[in-house]
Amino acid sequence: MSQYCNSYDTLISDIGGVLFTSKDGQTTNVDAHMFRQIIGTQSWYNLDTGKISNNEAYSLIAKQFSLCEGDIRDAIQNAVDGLICSREMFNLIAYLKPGRKIYAMSNMPSSIWEVVERTGGALWNMFDGIFISGTVGGRKPDFAFYHHILHETGAIPKHTLLVDDIRDNIVTGRCLGSGFTCILYDTFANVHQALRNLCGDPISRASEFLTSNAKRHHSCASASQIIHENICQAVPATYTGGH
């Protein structure tokens, strides 16, 4: 039996772009390029951290971009309506949950989090804590938000995994103290493989692979031509007790 002991006892995941993804919604008067500009404004940052209300933020943003407040509201509502719960990511986190603490950390106004929380429902029960910028009063990639989570959870950076879809947030995580081990979310397949590699027992996984692929361990030539011989079948069988 493997005596492997995993060093990662904490996993922190982003929400938007990781646990929830976006789908194309109805067309509004705010195109995708302008929407990205809007959520990059100081007014949006202030809304993100609970410093101003939705109405105040929409009014300031409308003036900045010479738009109607209704256009801003429609664009935000359209984005919220387009959020889709990533069941496969939640399932992966549930698989990784035994033996470690799981937290969520996200830049999100409190009003949007209320919708996301309802949508996720009981799926949030597996999390040991959820930190939203709208309630914490800080946002990524500011160091203060990360320090707040470390203080509240007692997590140790070198034993912590961070999954996020924004490079700036990843950079801050890597620069924090001894540094989080960070995974940039690009595709679920890549994140799934990275987390399984980091959290799994490599000896048990290797044994499982050899056993499940018994009699299929073939040699291949440079042109991917399979060479049928007995050595590659016999060696794994020797160590797995197969035939």
From TrEMBL:
Question: PANTHER family per the record?
Answer: ALPHA-D-GLUCOSE 1-PHOSPHATE PHOSPHATASE, FLAVIN MONONUCLEOTIDE HYDROLASE 1, CHLOROPLATIC
- Name the UniProt record assigns to this protein: Uncharacterized protein
Q: From which source organism is this entry?
A: Psilocybe cyanescens
Q: Give the InterPro entries listed for this entry.
A: HAD-like_sf, HAD_sf, PGP-like_dom2
- The parts of the chain that form a coiled coil are none
